[in-house]
Amino acid sequence: MSGSTYIHPAMPxxxxxxxxxxxxxxxxxxxxxxxxxxxxxxxPAHWHGSNADWLWPRDTxxxxxxxxxxxxxxxxxxxxxxxxxxxxxxxxxxxxxxLSLVLxxxxxxxxxxxxxxxxxxxxxxxxxxxxxxxxxxxxGLVFFHAERHSYGGLRMPWPIRSDRAWRxxxxxxxxxxxxxxxxxxxxxxxxxxxxxLALAFVLSLVGLPLFAGLVSLALRRA
Length: 222
What we know:
Elements: H1 17-36, E1 42-48, E2 51-57, H2 58-82, H3 85-117, H4 124-145, H5 163-190, H6 194-219
Helix pairs in contact: 1-2, 1-3, 2-3, 2-6, 3-4, 3-6, 4-5, 5-6
């Protein structure tokens, strides 16, 4: 109609204010750590017996969690833009809590670094490792046993056409997730060191979604 302007409703985003709040909390923890931990402090990244044989400078160690969170937020924002409005409505109930979980892991890790830097004996990072490992194992089992169109299935921007392909994608992705959780639990039990656990967290949080996506692309027509 003349004289009127149609305003298209904004496309909903997978990144919510709650997710940005978690990111802000991590930045706040980082700021407190910068103020409380000496600039020349070296975080023990790996243990050999009772001695640290790999040390991380303070600023390097503290940069890992915020950078990882920023990458995850951008990835989920891009994924939200790739989805249609109808697809978004179907997958938000899974992807929203998924992003909350993957952002909470680096936030808790950063809190553990702060405790370590101020001399606390409470090893929060190993605790985070055990909890994260348990979540991955549970998630992997859900994927492995999920039925097509179930609540716990993977959600991709592209369709997986056949039931056989859908089942293969979920079996392979679920097994990879369980094995990753078992590996992180082992590293936490052996007290491999905060640096090793940080690398394991990064590889799992970034690598598992990429792996599932590549598997779904490769097998979607199987």
